[in-house]
Design a protein that fits this description.
7 strands, 3-stranded mixed β-sheet, alpha+beta, binds flavin-adenine dinucleotide, 385 residues, single chain
Length: 385
């Protein structure tokens, strides 16, 4: 019978890529306990991702990449997260942002091409550092306290960014900043320099190996052509589905662990493994309801986003619903998996213990639950009567 994780695969190209990512996921799963325990950054995982061409998957073909669809992006991210949620979430920001720039044309064409060519040639990665302590989630529209001031030949940027995933490995990144002279906000491409420092603040419950430290900019220079906002089409933010894809992968890993346990664990009070017990079967069935409902929404949204480009802007509530359902259902699936396994699921040596902590982070990645609910309510109230 086909494995649940394989069920969205549609063709041989996807099957071959999924098989390659599965090998990476197996390797990363072996390394994950150490990085999680240390809260350190998995540089060797990223070296492997680079070697296998994973970092260029969303780069346009014209610049040497694979230009994969959103559907396939979700499929591969889910598979990677099955092995290690932290690595999948972190590389998801990079691949997702390249996809977003590809579809929106938000950056000056030469700047985007230079980035893409560098991804293909040197394994360069990118992320946006927008969150700050005072403004909270950028998705709520708070004004950054980071400031950009015009300087000779460009800009000087000063401020402190929080939750800066991938910061240990990036040589360049995007920051949002307020421009007091123009009373507006803009994004800037900033390179690592002696005016940029990483403060190792990332010591959290889950997603401990994402390197999401604080980044401090002390008059960091950005050239005149590094100001990025102002142009581009609205793609509805489809690329953000890498987030639910990650948490779905963690949930499927938890489910598979619980199934293997239920099939093999035979306490001496029983003459069959616990999988034969009606209570355990009930819990397994409940996991399937949560997983399959959420996954259907996730892949349907990704597929529609690929196939109906003119509908992308209008798809925001649908994309948000997929994220909302996946992240909440994934938390429930890990909880149910732990109920099947029992108290040994609490042990640090048991992967469920890490899944339980990692899966919780999904609530705090965008769009947040309250924003999704508001979007859906607005859409409902906007219907013609
Ligand atoms: C693992 C992980 C990786 C991340 N990686 C990145 C990254 O690479 N780059 C990046 O920029 N960010 C990143 N983030 C940060 C993320 O996008 C959010 O900015 C961060 O989680 C803070 O969001 P928040 O909703 O908790 O904070 P806040 O916006 O401060 O909200 C805190 C609470 O206050 C309430 N609240 C605050 N403002 C409002 C409002 N206007 N309306 C309604 N309620 C409100 C809500 O109840 C909310 O729960 C990451 C976060 C995590 C967990």
């Amino acid at each position: 019978m086909i494995r649940l994780i394989d069920s969205p695969i549609r063709n041989d190209v996807e099957r071959n890529r999924a098989a390659l990512v599965e090998q990476l996921a197996v390797r990363f799963a072996e390394r994950a306990p150490r990085y999680d325990r240390e809260g350190s950054f998995p540089f060797d995982n990223f070296a492997d991702l680079r070697k296998e061409g994973y970092l260029k998957l969303t780069v346009p073909r014209a610049f040497g990449g694979d230009e994969i669809s959103l559907y396939e992006f979700v499929l591969l991210q889910e598979r990677l997260a099955y092995g290690d949620g932290s690595t999948a979430l972190a590389v998801g920001w990079h691949l997702g942002q390249i996809m977003h720039l590809r579809t929106t044309g938000k950056w000056p064409a030469e700047t985007f091409e230079a980035l893409c060519r560098s991804v293909v040639k040197d394994g360069t990665m990118i992320n946006t550092f927008a969150s700050e302590a005072a403004s909270g989630s950028p998705s709520r529209g708070g004004r950054p306290e980071t400031i950009a001031v015009a300087a000779d030949g460009g800009w000087r940027i000063t401020g402190r960014k929080t939750f800066s995933t991938l910061s240990p490995i990036l040589d360049r990144f995007v920051v949002s900043a307020y421009l007091p002279d123009e009373d507006c906000t803009a994004d800037f491409l900033v390179y690592q320099s002696d005016r940029v420092s990483i403060v190792e603040t990332w010591d959290t419950l889950g997603m401990r190996a994402t390197g999401s430290h604080d980044v401090v900019l002390d008059g960091a220079f950005a050239g005149a052509d590094s100001r990025l906002t102002g142009k581009g089409t609205d793609d509805g933010g489809g690329w953000l589905l890498h987030i639910p894809a990650c948490y779905m992968g963690i949930a499927i890993a938890a489910r598979d662990y619980a199934l293997a346990f239920a099939r093999s664990y035979k306490p001496n009070s029983l003459d069959k493994p616990i999988a034969a017990l009606p209570t355990v079967q009930q819990t397994i069935g409940e996991m399937e309801v949560e997983l399959r409902t959420a996954r259907t929404l996730l892949y349907a949204a990704a597929d529609r986003w690929d196939k109906e480009p003119t509908e992308r802007t209008a798809m925001k509530p649908e994309l948000g619903l997929a994220k909302y359902t996946v992240t909440n259902n994934a938390i429930r699936v890990v909880d149910l998996a732990m109920r099947i396994v029992g108290a040994t699921s609490l042990a640090r040596a048991n992967p469920l213990e890490r899944y339980y902590r990692d899966v919780r982070a999904g609530l705090h990645n965008p769009p947040m639950d309250s924003s999704v609910i508001q979007m859906l309510a607005a859409q409902a109230l906007g219907e013609e009567t």
